[in-house]
Amino acid sequence: MTDISFAAPSPTTADIGVIGMGVMGSRLARNLARHGHAVGIYNVTTAKTQAVLDEHGDEGTFVPAAELADFVASLTRPRVVLIMVVAGPITDEVIGNVKEFLEPGDIIIDGGNSLYTDTIRREKELREDGLLFVGAGVSGGAEGALHGPSIMPGCSDEAYGRVGPMLESIAAKADDGEACCTHISTDGSGHYVKMVHNGIEYADMQLIAEAYSLLRGALELEPAALAEVFRAWNTTELESYLIEITAEVLDQVDAETGKPLVDVILDQAGQKGTGRWTVQDALDLGVPVTGIAEATFARALSSSVPQREAGQELAALAEAWQVDDADAVTEDVRKALYASKVVAYSQGFDQIYAAAVEYDWQIDLAAVAKIWREGCIIRAAFLDEIAAAYAGAAKRTGNQAADLHGAAEANDAKVSRDGAGTTNEASVDDESAAGEHSGTSTPGARTEDAEGSSGGENPVPLLLAARHFREAVEECIPALRRVVAQAALAGVPVPAFAASLAYYDGVRAKRLPAALIQGQRDFFGSHTYARIDKPGMFHTQWAEDGTEVPAS
Ligand SMILES: NC(=O)C1=CN([C@@H]2O[C@H](COP(=O)(O)OP(=O)(O)OC[C@H]3O[C@@H](n4cnc5c(N)ncnc54)[C@H](OP(=O)(O)O)[C@@H]3O)[C@@H](O)[C@H]2O)C=CC1
Ligand SMILES: O=C(CO)[C@H](O)[C@H](O)COP(=O)(O)O
């Protein structure tokens, strides 16, 4: 649609072109211009392109275009086009439109929140046309896009070699000066990492909301007073962007009513899809991202209007939380929040590891933690410790991504060579061991029957157990237990806190009731089970004399 026309841009003057002058695209274009890059700008509604020029044209060199053909003509060859539009079919449409004007060797970067499987497909299709495609996760919201986002590009080495320096120039910088942008791996890897980033974001936000809800109920504090609590917490090991902005949100007063804004906002959380995708994919991989899942379901519950209306009839049958020492309760909630946040990040990194093996992506997890230290929504002080845990493990095993990956492949090979000769202590899926089905429990075994957990030989199989976090989290567990117990008694929903504690207790348990489940499965479906004391798979003849026989 052309409602305004610009003078035809002089050809080949812009270093990069940005399509989409919405919240993110306009700010990324300005960020690029502020860093000395000449930026071609285009938006389907030309008035938005005009607005960027009118309001920010003095920030650098912008080359506006009202037509895609002029936009592409304004770019130096080989061309680089950054697309920042709505994810999904609209992104396909925009790629299809701009592709018409591009030539082999040109590069398209999709910086939207695209589903990683779309990115894998698009990269393949565009490669066949001779174009290079970069699926770049971008985080940081409007402020980050303008002042320095965290950028997670997935692409070939060739594409990164071409666009990496430009992306690094506009990315946030960590305290040590490192750019919060790194080449994640090939095709959909960047969007995968961004998807899990958003899953962690969901968990983090839900945990903070639960902490707020508990303190508000237990201590009968007003939002402004709670803003001070969060401000104080932001000077502790909880220091993070989301804690910081929580204080700002709680402090906001509604101009119309004079009430705290949080009290007049409808309590139905929206979602655009990334949290849901994270959980869906984790289910396929068999990775228990319970904190992220509960956070996603909590948003769904908040928006389940008919159920919530009908639920108003339900009795609470709860006890009021008797608070003797407000400071002690506040400190308990702070510690519960810290432990649960670590669980969420730990689960998210496990998922990225499992996906890396599944998709053959060489992902350096320490580098992922490092580029999340600034610029992104989940930036948090403890990401330095997460980076150190993965970097330390990589050093011990010899190198970074390659070894994380090689270790798992070695384990895959071991499983197939060992066949039935592995005990369930090694987390090997019984059915693959029995040879009845093709699935294995190692990462990389996304088959119908891959029912087990993703074990493998991840050098940091449990971030929670890495030394720094083990000590820091153990310090907080008694508080988390008290908080979850008190919340249950008081009838306050804390699904993410409760799930985090259950995960902690689950992974530390010497023995789980999964043994009973295996017995039940064998009883009704002859699914067989492994034993703790000898290799092989077994079946009990439950309906006959109860004799145990080796599985055939
Ligand atoms: N907002 C955020 O915090 C973040 C967003 N993202 C992702 O970045 C991308 C852009 O988000 P954001 O800037 O917030 O979104 P906006 O809604 O602000 O902008 C969307 C852009 O898409 C354009 N668009 C819509 N429909 C079409 C179409 N049919 N053809 C061409 N262009 C179209 C819009 O143009 P017009 O207005 O003229 O219709 C607009 O420029 C999304 O994928 C989003 O998920 C990523 C990180 C953070
Ligand atoms: O990517 C983002 C932040 O990192 C976007 O803000 C995204 O829209 C957040 O997800 P949702 O809208 O589902 O809460």
Automatic annotation (TrEMBL):
One of its GO terms (molecular function) is phosphogluconate dehydrogenase (decarboxylating) activity. It holds the Pfam family 6PGD. One of its GO terms (biological process) is D-gluconate metabolic process. It comes from the Bacteria. It catalyses: 6-phospho-D-gluconate + NADP(+) = D-ribulose 5-phosphate + CO2 + NADPH. PROSITE patterns: 6PGD. Pathway: Carbohydrate degradation; pentose phosphate pathway; D-ribulose 5-phosphate from D-glucose 6-phosphate (oxidative stage): step 3/3. InterPro entries: 6-PGluconate_DH-like_C_sf, 6PGD_dom2, 6PGDH_C, 6PGDH_Gnd/GntZ, 6PGDH_NADP-bd, 6PGdom_BS, NAD(P)-bd_dom_sf, Pgluconate_DH. Keywords: Gluconate utilization, NADP, Oxidoreductase, Pentose shunt. Residues 408-457 are annotated as: Disordered. Its EC number is 1.1.1.44. Residues 190-543 form the 6-phosphogluconate dehydrogenase C-terminal domain. PANTHER family: 6-PHOSPHOGLUCONATE DEHYDROGENASE (PTHR11811). Homodimer. Belongs to the 6-phosphogluconate dehydrogenase family. This is 6-phosphogluconate dehydrogenase, decarboxylating. The lineage of its organism: Bacteria, Bacillati, Actinomycetota, Actinomycetes, Actinomycetales.
